[in-house]
Amino acid sequence: MNKLNIGIIGAGSISDLHLQAYQKLGQTVKIAAVCDLNRARAQEKADKYGASQVYEDYHQLLADPSIDAVSICTWNNTHAEISIAALKAGKHVLVEKPLCRTVEEALNVQQAVRDSGKVLQVGFVRRYDANAQLVKKFVENGEFGDIYYAKASCIRRLGNPGGWFADKERSGGGPLIDIGVHVIDICWYLMGRPKVVSVTGNTYKKLGNRGNVKNLSFYKAADYDASQNSVEDMANALVRFDNGASLMVDVSFTLHAKQDETVVKLFGDKGGLELEPALALVSEKHDTILNITPQTDQKGLNVTAAFQNEIRCFIESCTTGVEPISPVEDGVELMKILCGIYESAETGREVRYE
Ligand SMILES: NC(=O)c1ccc[n+]([C@@H]2O[C@H](COP(=O)([O-])OP(=O)(O)OC[C@H]3O[C@@H](n4cnc5c(N)ncnc54)[C@H](O)[C@@H]3O)[C@@H](O)[C@H]2O)c1
Question: Given this model, what pLDDT does residue 1 score?
C-alpha cells in the first residue's frame, strides 16, 4: 500500500503533537511537507520530523499533487479559509479546534466538505481519549438512563496564552472558544448530541491577561506577547436542548480562583459519570448509592495518547472513507453554541434557535 503523504500547516506549539503521532504511524504515513508563515519554524519542524518540503505560503503546499492530507494547526481565523482551499485541492483535512470563528464560516466549510467528498475531521481531541471512549460505551448501553444535566468547566486562574490567542480578530474569542470548546464538546458528545434550542451567557473582562504575575508558568502561544488583549477573561452559560436536557458552562483564562480546575460531569436518571477531575461512575443499587471507580491504567486525560488516537482515526477515515468520530457537522453545532453564548453576552438576552 502507498503511504499517505501528509502536510502540516502551522508549525507552532500544537503541531508537535500532530507530528509525533504521524511519525509513530510511519508504516502508513509519510510526513512530506511543513508550512508556516515563519519559515525558520517550519524548517525546524521539517528537520526534526524528516519532511523534505518547506513552505511559507500554504497555497504552494496545497498545489503539490503528491500531498494527500493536511493537518491545519494555524490561528483560528485561518481555519475556514485553509480548510476550504485544501478540500478544493483534493486533500483530506484534520483541522484543529475550534472549526473556525463564526457559524457562517462553519457552514461554508461544511459545504466544501460535501462538494469535495473528502474527509474533514475536527480536532475535538478529548473524544479520542481512552476514558471518553470507555464512558461512551456505558452511555450507549443505557447505564445512566436519560442524561438530563451536564456541567462543563475549565478554569485557569492564570492562563491567557497571549499572542494571537488574546487577539479577538485572529482567535474569535478567549477561553470560551479556546478551552471551553473542549469541555462543551465532550459533554455534548456524551449527551448524544442533542439539538440546541437556546443559549444564555455572560462574558467578563475584569482582570486582563495578568502578564504581571511572577513565579507561575503557563501555556503560551509560539509568539507570546502580553501587551495586547482583546478577549474575555471568563465566560459562563446555560445551554438548553430539545430533549429538555441542559448544560452549565464556566471557563476562564484568568480568575481569582484558588486553583485550576476542569470539570466534566453528566447526570442521568439511572446514574452519573465524571470524566474530570477524575474518572468515576455513580449509580444506585438496592437502595444504596455506589461510587464506582473503573479500573484502568489511565487515571485522567492522556493528551499524547488522545492525539495519537485522533490521528490514527483520521488516517483510517482517509484510507477507508469511514465517517470521522468528530465530523464537520459537529463542528458547525459547536460554533452555534459558542457564537450563541457570545451573542447572548453582548445583547444581554437569551439566544433562541428554532
Ligand atoms: N487540541 C488541542 O488541545 C489544542 C491545544 C492547543 C492549540 N490548539 C489549536 O491549534 C491551533 C494552533 O495553536 P498553537 O498553540 O499551536 O498556536 P501557535 O501560535 O503556537 O502556532 C500557530 C502557528 O501557525 C502559524 N500560522 C498562522 N497562520 C498561518 C498561515 N496562514 N499559514 C501558515 N502558518 C500560519 C503561526 O506562524 C504559528 O507558528 C489553534 O487553532 C488552537 O486552537 C489545539
Answer: 66
3-state secondary structure the chain: CCCEEEEEECCCCCHHHHHHHHHHCCCCEEEEEEECCCHHHHHHHHHHHCCCEEECCHHHHHCCCCCCEEEECCCHHHHHHHHHHHHHCCCEEEEECCCCCCHHHHHHHHHHHHHHCCCEEEECHHHHCHHHHHHHHHHHCCCCCCEEEEEEEEECCECCCCHHHHCHHHHCCCHHHHHHHHHHHHHHHHCCCCCEEEEEEEEECCCCCCCCCCCCCCCCCCCCCCCCCCCCCEEEEEEEECCCCEEEEEEECECCCCCCEEEEEEEECCEEEEEECCCEEEEEECCEEEEECCCCCCCCCCHHHHHHHHHHHHHHHHHHCCCCCCEHHHHHHHHHHHHHHHHHHHHCCCEECC
Q: How far is the CA of 9 from the centre of ligand 1 (A)?
A: 9
pTM for the model: 0.97
Nearest CA to ligand 1 atom 40: 75
Report the residue among 14, 122, 183, 326 best suited for mutation to probe ligand 1: largest number of ligand atoms under 8 A from its CB. 14
Ligand 1 center from residue 325 Cα (angstroms): 22
Instruction: Give residue ranges with CB within 6 A of ligand 1.
Output: 9-15, 35-38, 41, 58, 73-76, 78, 96-97, 123, 125, 163-164, 178, 221-223
CA of 12 to the centre of ligand 1 (A): 5
The whole-number average pLDDT for the span 311-330 is 98
Note the pLDDT tens digit of each residue in 27-49.
999 999 999 999 999 999 999 99
pLDDT tens sequence across 105-143: 999 999 999 999 999 999 999 999 999 999 999 999 999
- How far is the centre of ligand 1, averaged over its atoms, from the C-alpha of 145 (Å)? 39
pLDDT of 73 over the 70 cut: yes
pLDDT tens column, 74-91: 999 999 999 999 999 999
Q: What is the mean pLDDT of residues 188-199?
A: 98
Residue 317 CA to ligand 1 center (angstroms) comes to 23
